[in-house]
Amino acid sequence: MMAESEPTRGMEDLDRLLRDTSRTFALAIPLLPGELRRSVTVAYLLFRIADTFEDSDSWSPDERIIALSEFAELLRHIDIDKANLLGRDWATRSPVHHAGYLELLERTGQVLEALAELPEPVRERIVHHTCRTADRMAVFVRQTGSDGQLRLGSVAELRDYCYAVAGIVGEMLTDLYLLECPGLETRAGDLRRWAPLFGEALQLVNILRDASADGLEGRSYVPARSNRAELFALAHADLGVAREYTDALRAGGAPSGVIAFNALPVELAEATLEVVEREGPGAKISREAVGEILMRVLGSCP
After folding, report:
1. Residue (of 268, 255, 270) closest to 295 by Cα position
2. Predicted local confidence at residue 95, as pLDDT
């Protein structure tokens, strides 16, 4: 029997880390074709590392800012040995209590090895956008109050936050699609314009769903001077843009897997927003509903 290749084993490890650190993206990323799936898996895991520092409920703001800076420097000058040392140190100091996130931190060096193996144009875009996010996350961590809590003061500030942690992800994914699917250049303008709002849509839904839990952990992303109806209206409008983005991919001849990858989180977010609007923060859609949405998306992207 032929021995399993190192790239195959490496991808299996990345897939397991993805499953242990994600819900929606663990369902969506496997829909992507070929090399794009590997690139987006690596990118997701890198963004998840940055998220883990930004979301830490046990490190001081200074510790989180230092870790974000160290992580960005690792990306700009890939050093696997240093990544292994820092990853073990980060995991040992436990910025969070999620076992999957802690293992991901410990395996930072492995994720950077996978990053280094990607084609240079792909690697450059992933590094560029991940560093942008890490730098902007640090700005928000600096706003943490003396009581250890982050409070966003306005809808404009909320949108800036959504851009930092999710809108940039949309921009990075758009860059990767354009690299892998040159035929999409005819729709590049629309895709680049709508990408940040696609990310904002998904982040807003998460914030509205998790408002109560975030409050218990010292984070208040819902501005005190905003009203619930205004934020739900913004989320609905952004999801409409996200649908236009997906339609532009379809019109530009994107592979069915790319269309499905984008359609699935939009469908899940719309269903989630509906139930949270009706039942309040903390409400979730059922596993059965998730399965039905997945089957519907797959059926519409043959």
Report:
1. 268
2. 95
